[in-house]
């Protein structure tokens, strides 16, 4: 069932984050980035038509299963978050699923960076008044520390993705994070830590985005304080 997009949800998310002892990474050798978890409204069946061929998206990208083609379909409805498909022309992590975000500029806070990147990447302008709170930091294999900033969009919004960075923006219902088959954990020989997979549409979302989305479910929706910083990325995302 979909989750209503209303004031009760907003206050539940805010209260759950406020009651959480946030895990921060203070490693000066790492670069700092922020991502925006933007909560918006959506309607069932409004999934966007893919603006480019799925074959182009998936070119050179290992697919997780024969029954998964990488399309983000059947996911909208009720309270949702914005999920981006990165452009294939990008030099790193091209064609992958991601939350709006990027590296902090000198002197920026995580909130500043998340708001700026949200505007630059998907054409949505929000303010500090829309911040519901910060989730745990996640340290990536590529040397970044990512701080997720949860934002209340205040309605449906109208994403206008920057074509050089984002191919498309989808509204993914929060109820999709609570699927019976989610989350999934697998082992890999390269690490003792479990790799997290979040099934969405016809694809699997991996860490770091998958770890952030798992904490959205556990903390924001369910009030659970379980850590996600120990969850591993797949090897293809280590660069």
TrEMBL record:
<dbReference type="InterPro" id="IPR045121">
    <property type="entry name" value="CoAse"/>
</dbReference>
<keyword id="KW-0378">Hydrolase</keyword>
<dbReference type="GO" id="GO:0046872">
    <property type="term" value="F:metal ion binding"/>
</dbReference>
<keyword id="KW-0479">Metal-binding</keyword>
<dbReference type="InterPro" id="IPR000086">
    <property type="entry name" value="NUDIX_hydrolase_dom"/>
</dbReference>
<feature type="domain" description="Nudix hydrolase">
    <location>
        <begin position="30"/>
        <end position="196"/>
    </location>
</feature>
<dbReference type="GO" id="GO:0010945">
    <property type="term" value="F:coenzyme A diphosphatase activity"/>
</dbReference>
<dbReference type="InterPro" id="IPR020084">
    <property type="entry name" value="NUDIX_hydrolase_CS"/>
</dbReference>
<dbReference type="InterPro" id="IPR020476">
    <property type="entry name" value="Nudix_hydrolase"/>
</dbReference>
<dbReference type="Pfam" id="PF00293">
    <property type="entry name" value="NUDIX"/>
</dbReference>
<protein>
    <submittedName>
        <fullName>Coenzyme A pyrophosphatase</fullName>
    </submittedName>
</protein>
<keyword id="KW-0464">Manganese</keyword>
<keyword id="KW-0460">Magnesium</keyword>
<dbReference type="InterPro" id="IPR015797">
    <property type="entry name" value="NUDIX_hydrolase-like_dom_sf"/>
</dbReference>
<comment type="similarity">
    <text>Belongs to the Nudix hydrolase family.</text>
</comment>
């Amino acid at each position: 069932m979909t989750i209503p997009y209303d004031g009760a949800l907003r206050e539940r998310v805010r209260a759950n984050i406020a009651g959480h002892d946030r895990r921060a990474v203070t490693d000066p050798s790492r670069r700092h980035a922020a991502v925006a978890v933007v909560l918006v409204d959506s309607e069932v069946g409004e999934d966007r038509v893919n603006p480019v061929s799925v074959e182009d998206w998936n070119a050179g990208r290992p697919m997780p299963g024969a029954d998964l083609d990488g399309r983000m379909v059947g996911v909208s409805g009720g309270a949702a978050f914005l999920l981006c498909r990165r452009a294939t022309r990008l030099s790193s992590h091209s064609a992958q699923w991601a939350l709006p975000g990027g590296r902090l500029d000198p002197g920026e806070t995580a909130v500043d960076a998340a708001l700026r990147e949200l505007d630059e990447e998907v054409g949505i302008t929000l303010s500090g008044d829309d911040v519901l709170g910060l989730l745990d930091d996640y340290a990536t294999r590529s040397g970044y520390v990512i701080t997720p900033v949860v934002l209340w969009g205040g309605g449906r919004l109208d994403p206008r993705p920057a074509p050089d960075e984002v191919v498309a923006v989808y509204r993914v219902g929060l109820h999709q994070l609570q699927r019976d088959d989610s989350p999934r954990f697998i082992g890999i020989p390269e690490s003792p830590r479990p790799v997290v997979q979040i099934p969405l549409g016809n694809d699997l979302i991996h860490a770091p985005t998958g770890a952030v989305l798992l904490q959205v479910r556990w903390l924001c929706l369910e009030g659970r304080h379980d850590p996600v910083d120990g969850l591993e990325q797949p090897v293809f995302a280590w660069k």
